[in-house]
Amino acid sequence: MTRLWSWGALLIGVAFFLMPLYGMTEFSLKMRRGEYSFDAYVTVLGDPRFQATFGYSVLMAVLTILCGVLLVVPTAFWVRLKLPGLRPWVEFITLLPLVIPSIVVVFGYIRLYNTSSWLPLTGSVTGTNMLLMFGYTVLALPYMYRAVDTGLRTIDVATLTEAAQSLGAGWVTILARVILPNVLGAVLSGAFLTFAIVIGEFTMAALLDRPAFGPYMQLLGANRAYEPAALAVIAFAITWACMGLIQLVTRFSKHNRVAR
Amino acid sequence: MAFLDLSHLEKAFGAMRVVKDFNLGIDKGEFVSFLGPSGCGKTTVLRMVAGFERPDSGAITVDGRDITGLKPNQRSIGMVFQAYALFPNLTVAENVGFGLKVAGVAKAEAGERVAEMLALIGLPDLGARYPFQLSGGQQQRVALARALAPRPQVLLLDEPLSALDAKIRVSLRTEIREIQQRLGITTIFVTHDQEEALSISDRIVVMNGGIAEQTGRPLEIYNRPRTRFVANFVGTLSMLEGVLQDPATGRVSLAEGEVTLGRPIERPAGAAITLALRPEALHLGGGRGDIVLPARVTEVHFLGSVIRIRVETGGTSLSLDTFNRPETPPPPLGSQTEVSIAASDVIVLDDARAEQGAH
Questions:
Q1: DSSP state string for B316-343
Q2: Same structural domain, B205 and B259
Q3: DSSP-H helix ranges across B163-242
Q4: Residue B91: how many other CB atoms lie within 10 Å
Q5: What InterPro entries is this protein classified in (chain B) (predicted)?
């Protein structure tokens, strides 16, 4: 009897998530009247703006991930090792991007770094791209920090650091050869979340007027019927591919097997 | 000057003074154990030598070079931790070669050294394994090889055997001692296990409350403990309180009667004095020593090869050990008997230090 209930609950859950997805996919295949076809997908994938904006966003995502890892891994390591009393504060700060809407953040940026400010980042394309990357880093901070911090919890940071120090290693060597490889799984899950956020982000890219994927999706959604659905399915596929990659990577990191 | 010299080390954490005026000279190739209960400051002293803690005052020199202000990675000191601390992402060979790689040793030379170290610890074929594929004892041996590979001047062992089970603990401690002697490396071994310290050290420093209570060879520490703390911490001991009657002959009056040790005691007549006895120094029945005391059997514990008996004499409880012999069963509880002691086996505790130790 209990078994029946649990199967029932599972079925309801699955239906709840899959039915809209099924509806959307079905709709995206209906561009040609009276039969199923991939016309919408062909249109979307063949659109040069899709390729340009998607390429731009992927590049931004990679840069954001690099920036986030370089910022978060040493910070989380240092807080854990030397300033454990500051942990609640750092956690609070990393949670702020969830509370402060990105429109507020980006307006702050524009006010601070406009062309008549002391650091006119918005004055050049490179400067604006950098500003957008920093903004993305902030948006991804809650996920990246939490992932890395959880990763650090699974290893004995203090003792491993001391062991490396007594073997002659300096801070950079310790971070690069001892700490980072041991939290790589966590860093990667943070990285994929960052990737997903950057690919879909609209507000910052639109207000900084950068040719990103988010504004393109919005534009398409406002003007077309079938293509946005196809685009959403593509976005889902990308997300799932990312999750699959996380699974693959964690499975291939041999030294972690005992912890699992 | 000794090879490793610790002079006037002081360390406080907040208001807690954990190390107080600690002095010790260790010769090249010597194996010294720091023995004491948790919180006695032994690990703090070790961590100051490693560079993980900075002493509030005092100096540490190795081979005449002052290393007090140096960072841990500039000290040429190998360390083995209680929790192994092997790098989980590296293989055994990469772990052992880590220090060599950091030091920029050429690949071929490092490879040879790693192979040499793995042979030394008796695991020549396990270089490609990851730490999680090894047992605790194997992991700790790899940690030892890793610490020794860069040829450090000093080896520090921070309770390296505490996480292992009893059998491996005994075999590994012998192995550590053999390797240490073969390489002739100056070593400090921190432990709270007296048997470990007694069995493998050249010298033992018994620590309590941040000070070195007594420093000496294992036999000396066990047979001639100077303070009540050392006597209590190292081995089992029964104590008899008395008053010194005649310093020249060592005549002491106890509640049980008078005893004469037959050797001078450097204390004024009439001074309160504490005599201490190891369980193996007492014998059941008269006639096996110069001192014979009447006793009543209060407890009998059969421990296998040894039988530990508690007797009461003049209101004091004494522990004594006898070997198990099937033909002479232990005395029944409550029976009246005598215990005899050789006067030379009686330990006279240094009471001025004993007061300190009791705090």
A1: EEEEEEEE--TTSPPPPTT-EEEEEE-G
A2: no
A3: 166-183, 194-200, 218-223, 228-233
A4: 20
A5: AAA+_ATPase, ABC_SmlMolc_Importer, ABC_transporter-like_ATP-bd, ABC_transporter-like_CS, Mo/tungstate-bd_C_term_dom, P-loop_NTPase, Transp-assoc_OB_typ2
Q: Are B208 and B357 in contact (CB under 8 A)?
A: yes
What confidence tens digit (pLDDT) does each residue in A120-152 have? Answer: 888 899 999 999 999 999 999 999 999 999 999
Query: Out of A159, A167, A254, whose CB is closest to B146?
Result: A167
Whether B218 has a pLDDT exceeding 90, the answer reads: yes
Domain assignment present for residue A58? The answer is yes
Residue length of chain B:
359
**Residues B78 and B159 grouped into a single domain:** yes
CATH number at residue A119: 1.10.3720.10
Chain centroid to CA B63: how far? 25
Across the beta sheet with B347-349, the strand order is B257-260, B251-254, B238-246, B272-277, B347-349
- Among B228, B256, B286, the domain boundary falls at B228
The identity of residue A54, as a single letter, is F
Chain A: residue nearest B71 by CA?
A: A165
**Cα–Cα distance, B225 to B353 (Å, whole number):** 11
Whether the CB of B97 is below 8 Å from some CB of chain A: the reply is no
| Cα distance between residue A213 and residue A232, in whole Å | 12
B156 and B293 share one domain:
no
- Shortest distance, CA B125 to any CA of chain A (angstroms): 18
* Residue range of the domain that includes B343: 236-358
Top residue of B87, B94, B146, B154 to mutate, by most chain A CBs within 10 Å, is B87
Pairs across A and B, CB distance < 8 A: 79
List, as one string, the DSSP characters of B245-256. EETTTTEEEETT
Same domain (yes/no): B17, B89: yes
What CATH number does residue B189 fall under?
A: 3.40.50.300
Place of tokens 């019927």: A225
- B96: closest CA among B81, B75, B111, B77? B111
Least confident of A43-52, A124-133, A148-157, B342-351: B342-351
Q: How far is Cα of residue B358 from the mean position of the Cα atoms in its chain?
A: 19
* Contact criterion met (CB below 8 Å) for A162 and B75: no
Condensed to tens digits (0 to 9), the pLDDT of residues A101-119 reads 999 999 999 999 988 888 8
> What is the token pair recorded at A249?
């990577």
